[in-house]
Amino acid sequence: MSLITFLSVLLILNFGSSYGVIPTLYNTGVDNSHVSFPLGTTDIHWTISPTGPPAPITNIRPAWLPNTTVSSWISPGQGGQPTGEYLYTTTFDLTGYIVDAVSIDYRITMDDHVTEDFATSAPGIYLNGFVIPGTFFPASGAFNWTSWSPTLTLESNITSGESRFVNGVNTLNVYIDNGGAGPTGFRFEQISAITPVPEPSTYLILTGAMVALLVLARKKGLKNHQ
Ligand SMILES: [Ca+2]
């Protein structure tokens, strides 16, 4: 193995930890170990507003996509709920990450559909107060509570330049509209994330590589002179 190949392998290994999930971003209806709660348990990472006690709770309706071990439905209550808008909120911490390079793939499903923040009238999912373009799923959309959305991506500067991660606590808001006073609920699942973190060992390896290449170049230069 040449020196350059060896150093390349070292660098790749070092950045290998950049892929995974954001550990503080929780799916709906799971405990602190990211495992689904039993039905009827109160969620501890997501809130719903407005809501009735105790809420939000893990829930399931016969027509809904079945819960799994990694995510569950949450809702403001069992059975039919008042018609109107429900706000689902969670926070996650990106302290220490290179936030402009973070990218999070996720999917959602809901009853009835994603709607707008009535205060701004901009429909869609909100990251830190700004709507993310392309995340408005009206009632006539291609999916609902029986299937997952397409894979969606959370990242800084998505299209408009307004939706941005912050190096600290980030807030995700999803507005769900319930029609006809029937059941309502929401489910979120993080699929994967690119999470580059500057590690001290990265700089050591890069410095080492530069020194090694300089030494190599000097040796070659000396050889050529001999
Ligand atoms: Ca409904």
CATH topology group of the largest domain: Jelly Rolls
Q: Provide the succession of SSEs.
A: HEEEEEEEEEEEEEEH
Instruction: Determine and state the CATH class of the largest domain.
Output: Mainly Beta
Shape: elongated
Termini separation comes to: 26 Å
For the CA atoms, what is the radius of gyration? 23 Å
Polypeptide structure, described:
The chain is an alpha+beta fold and 226 residues long. It folds into 2 domains: 1-18 and 200-226; 22-194, Sandwich (Jelly Rolls). It is built from 2 helices and 14 strands. The strands form 4 sheets. Strands 2, 5, 7, 10, 11 and 13 form a 6-stranded antiparallel sheet that branches. A 4-stranded antiparallel sheet has the order 1-14-6-12, with no helix packed on it. A hairpin with a 4-residue loop joins strand 8 (116-117) and strand 9. The longest helix is centred in the last third of the chain and has 26 residues, at 200-225. The structure holds calcium ion (CA).
